[in-house]
Amino acid sequence: MLIDTHCHLTDQAILPDQAAVVQRAIAVGVQRMITIGTGPEDHLRVVDAIGLYPQVFGAIAVHPHLAGEIPSDFIAAMRALFAGQPRLLAVGECGLDYHGPSANAALQRPVFIQQLELARQLKLPAILHVRDAHADALSIMADYADVPHVVHCFTGTAEEADRWLKRGAYVGITGIVTYKNAPDVRAVAMLVPENRLLVETDSPYLSPEPVRKIKINEPAFVVHVAARVAAQRGVCAEALAQSTTANARRLFGPRLE
Ligand code: NI
User: 153 alpha carbon to ligand 1 midpoint, in Å?
Assistant: First the structure.
């Protein structure tokens, strides 16, 4: 069995086909999925999804791209959702994304920190989105060493991965590992210790080879991600499935059973 630790089943590219997408994942052995809500409206769709499918769990947070568009009481709203929904397993995805000209670091940082405070108070793990912002994110996380976390869709260098691993982070590998032009991600997929590695799709984005540019990504395709990571590490698919599943359960807790 495999767990897709990061997907967006409530994205408009998947939502109309959601039930079939979940069934196709189950059919290939992806028996757990964590669907991520990126902003206040999406959080409600995530709550709907986790109510519909016993295999689907959720995480909610404000994505750094949306840091400028949130109501001032967003933390209270998230707290209320967590209180009523034991199948919401983590605060995520939150973090820093300095990619592109519109990125606003001054806006993103306080939103990130408020959510780490919430994770700490609720004793929940955090799912971090970090793009072109590893130094700042590492410096903020120095104050939150007690909040277990995964750096999802890791796209940093091997050296950056090493800094995160020394802090106790888990590292999430997506279908980028299958792309020809991604030697850094393959290097990271090899260096992460067996007990810190997670696999994910980040669907509907980042379809892996061999379905890249052919199909919209969905949790079933975490099979392709895991196959590539296993080949890269020189382990069999079954061993990789076992270790990454154990890691997901350690990070996200016994409710993921
Ligand atoms: Ni995501």
Answer: 8
Contact 49, 15 (CB under 8 A): no
Distance between Cα 87 and ligand 1 center (Å) = 18
Answer whether 38's CB lies under 8 Å from 9's CB: no
Q: How far is the C-alpha of 109 from the C-alpha of 94, rounded, in Å?
A: 10
* Length reported for the chain: 257
Q: Helix-strand-coil percent breakdown of the chain, rounded to 5?
A: 50, 20, 30
CB 58 within 8 Å of CB 47: yes
pLDDT averages per 10-residue partition of the chain, 257 residues: 97 98 98 98 98 98 94 96 96 96 92 98 98 97 98 97 98 98 97 98 97 96 98 97 98 93
CA dihedral 95, 226, 203, 121 (to 10 degrees): -30
Record: fold of 2-256: TIM Barrel (3.20.20)
Token pair for residue 205?
A: 């984005």
**0.90 cut: is pTM over it?**
yes
Instruction: Centre a 10 Å sphere on the Cβ of residue 231 and count the other Cβ atoms it contains.
Output: 16
CA of residue 145 to ligand 1 center, whole Å = 22
Q: How far is the CA of 47 from the centre of ligand 1 (A)?
A: 16
Edge to edge, what strands does the sheet with 56-60 contain?
Answer: 2-7, 30-37, 56-60, 88-97, 126-131, 149-152, 170-173, 197-199
Q: Rounded CA gap, 143 and 135, in Å?
A: 14
CA of 63 to the centre of ligand 1 (A): 8
Q: Is 83 exposed, middle or buried (0-12, 13-18, 19+ CB in 10 A)?
A: exposed
Q: Are the CB atoms for 168 and 145 separated by under 8 Å?
A: yes
Q: DSSP characters for 110-144?
A: HHHHHHHHHHHHHT--EEEEEES-HHHHHHHHGGG
